[in-house]
Design a protein that fits this description.
By secondary structure, the protein is an alpha/beta fold. The chain is 39% helix and 18% strand. It folds into 2 domains: 64 residues, Chemotaxis Receptor Methyltransferase Cher, domain 1 (Orthogonal Bundle); 194 residues, Rossmann fold (3-Layer(aba) Sandwich), CATH 3.40.50.150.
Length: 292
């Protein structure tokens, strides 16, 4: 791969997925895109770049998906789901008692383990949500992982990662060497393809937004832009949940952290939503796309 080809691919990936690669990640692109080039009958990276420059829509999608890492598992990191059960939902149930409905958005739903974990949490609340309208929207950049999420079929290895055995028995059916989450839980999730770099206002407003382990791969200006747009999609008393390595602090005043609740944020008064100025050289550069 020539330096010119690498710079083209860096800009292409940032423009199309938000992935912000540093100058020394050529090996990463080669390891991900050489197999794709061969699979599609191309001679190598040079010909792949030529096809991208010619505007091949199918190849554009394939390249973005090849560079996306969808690392996820059930009840990942545990703490956000404790917050969901012990802090978020008790407040939501109290605040929404009049309308008896709740809307939740998983903004990087990947292969479905996060939204299904939330669905299991909600089912475990039993009578507290009887008669409520519960809506969970799970979005992701990759159509391939969304198809897996819709099917709700997981390997033995996948269900052993973070999923309590009692929930496996209660909410899954085993078929051969795979497990499928039951139809009732699958029906709770709406899966939609969405790029966070693009407009998402059509999704409407939410009481709870999970946006975990995806913003760490974006540069500072992109993070600020997304935070400010997320603030327009969340109810004034709603909750934003970020990954352990993510924060709004120093970036924007659209959200404030909750004391002693790591990764949990509340929206501020919109009049306080002022983006922090970017610091020269402060934008972090990461090597891979989102894991949830």
């Amino acid at each position: 791969m020539t330096p010119t080809e690498y710079e083209y691919l860096r800009k292409f990936l940032k423009d199309n997925s938000g992935l912000d690669l540093s100058a020394d990640k050529q090996y990463l692109i080669e390891s991900r895109l050489l197999p794709l080039a061969r699979k599609t009958g191309l001679s190598g990276i040079a010909e792949l770049v030529q096809k991208l420059q010619a505007g091949s829509r199918t190849l554009i999608t394939d390249v973005v998906e090849a560079m996306t890492t969808n690392e996820t598992f059930f009840f990942r990191d545990k703490v956000p789901f404790d917050h969901f059960r012990d802090t978020i939902m008790p407040e939501v149930i109290k605040a929404r008692a009049g309308r008896r409905s709740v809307r939740i958005w998983c903004a990087a739903g990947s292969t479905g383990q996060e939204p299904y974990s939330l669905a299991m949490c909600l089912k475990e609340m039993g009578a507290a949500l009887t008669g409520w309208r519960v809506e969970i929207i799970a979005t992701d950049l990759s159509q391939e992982v969304l198809e897996k999420a819709k099917a709700g079929v997981y390997s033995q290895f996948e269900v052993q990662r973070g999923l309590p055995i009692q929930m496996l028995v209660k909410y899954f059916k085993q078929t051969g060497e795979t497990w499928q989450i039951n139809p009732e839980l699958r029906a709770m999730i709406q899966h939609r393809q969405l790029n966070l770099l693009h407009d998402f206002s059509q999704l409407g407003t939410f009481d709870v937004i999970f946006c975990r382990n995806v913003l760490i791969y974006f540069d500072q200006d992109t993070k600020i832009n997304i935070f400010n747009r997320l603030a327009r999609q969340i109810e004034p008393d709603g909750f934003l949940v970020l990954g352990a390595a993510e924060t709004v602090v120093g970036l924007t005043d659209t959200f404030r952290p909750l004391p002693d609740r790591r990764g949990l944020y509340k929206p501020n008064d919109p009049r306080a939503a002022v983006a922090k100025p970017a610091l020269a050289g402060a934008a972090p550069r990461m090597a891979v796309m989102a894991g949830r």
